[in-house]
Design a protein that fits this description.
It is built from seven helices and six strands; from the N terminus they run βαβββααβαβααα. With about 170 residues, it is an alpha/beta fold. A hairpin with a 6-residue loop joins strand 2 and strand 3.
Length: about 170
């Protein structure tokens, strides 16, 4: 299913999209991009996608007010919307350290996989997202060759503005 990608870089647009997501989407995928995502990192993009293939990229580097004034905080802290992530710990740390907000009501697929291994009497293991998706034969997004090259060459690609079509 082809995705519909929407770049959100104003408070007004964020308010409209966040409201719609809060009301209409009980299940979302959630991902943060930036530099050194973790306790000392900097978030520049928050990506939220819906089961029907819509992708919303909130450009918080373009306007950090998107987080608080644009309502993204309401979505991040909502207990009415499940946020599906892979390896949420570093993203949660970065959100808290940068904005003092807590990621709530999450389903971390990496943690759930480790729980499943433990229930089967196996040691807890962590898998990368591509490995996990491959293991369960789930179709995944593959970045273009250009984007893969860009990501290898420039670890700060998500901090550069304007965002290029290659990056999106």
């Amino acid at each position: 299913m082809p995705s519909q990608i929407h770049l959100i870089n104003t408070v007004t647009a964020a308010e409209r999209i966040v409201y719609k997501l809060l009301v209409e989407q009980p299940l979302l995928t959630f991902n943060c991009k930036g530099t050194d995502i973790g306790p000392r990192g900097t978030l520049t993009l928050v990506t939220v996608s819906t089961p029907d293939g819509r992708v919303y990229i909130f450009d918080i580097k373009a306007d950090p007010n998107i987080v608080l004034n644009g309502g993204l905080v309401r979505l991040i802290e909502s207990v009415d919307n499940i946020k599906v992530l892979h390896d949420s710990k570093k993203q949660a740390e970065c959100l808290y350290n940068q904005f003092k907000i807590r990621l709530k009501h999450i389903f971390d697929v990496q943690d759930k996989y480790a729980d499943l291994m433990e229930k089967r009497g196996l040691p807890r293991r962590k898998l990368t997202l591509p490995a996990l998706l491959e293991r369960y034969n789930i179709e995944r997004y593959t970045p273009s060759i250009k984007l893969q090259k860009l990501l290898r060459e420039d670890r700060n690609v998500w901090c550069r503005r304007p965002l290029t079509k290659t990056a999106l």
